[in-house]
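Chain A, query sequence.
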Amino acid sequence: MMYGFTARNLGMKLIRFPQEDSFRFDPETGIFAVADGITRDCLNGRVADKTLAGIWNVFWHYPRPSPAREAADLFCRVFTAYASKFSPEDAIFQGFREANKGIHFLNQREGLEGDYLVGDFAGCVGAGAIKKEDYLFWGFLCDCGVAVLDKKGNLRFKTDDEGPHGKERKEGLDLIVAQNKGWANPEARRTIRRDYRNNSNQKDSFGVLTGETSAMDYVRTGVQRLRNGDYFLVYTDGMLPILFDSETEEVIPGFRGVLKEGSFERLENFCRQNVRSEGTMIISQY
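Chain A, predicted structure.
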């Protein structure tokens, strides 16, 4: 059984912030994908953040429908379609590549030319997997991820967090933002998006599917063998604080406790009660 959901914080709904996560899965083929659309600037040029001014800007000026959500939907749709056409060893990378091409055409259609501010490229990050017999073939980009837990809920395998807020990049990127007088300053946003997104020449760079071919340098793939009773999860970054301890990276006891109850519906309720903003997960048991 595969089970998927998006959990949203009530505050996100109150300010009418559009849902920008997406997911899709096919139990028959064992293919599943999640994506997180990258938050955009408001149409008045202001930043979308959690300050009072930022909340006001989101309420009145955030783009709806969101191009970020369109990119996330496109990734999930294209990945699951293309992944079924290739062997599992090749399907993951092919799915990411075709989705990235689709986002390129999305940006052309929307007239988004990549000014790194209001007219920045629409984009998303994502993760996908294929279960084939007792193997899980996986791929991810940035801070979306894949994990395997044993039947008791203990961590067996987890992909790295390669996003801008991950341990390896956060300090360096935070310094760049501070040097540019904070994220609310357009120059800070322009610098990060122009110089550190999809630019492998920079030490603290990270990947986003924006339609740029350089995004493919950040797609990671692999395979994990499953054991009887294992749970396997594909998730967006909004689930990270619910799933894993930020210091030890072990599964948080509260999540593990609910998982042991054996009800995915209860697990969904737990995530909805604890999510900080928005997060998506697909979970299944072998």
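The chain has one domain: 2-161+213-285. The chain has a mean pLDDT of 94.
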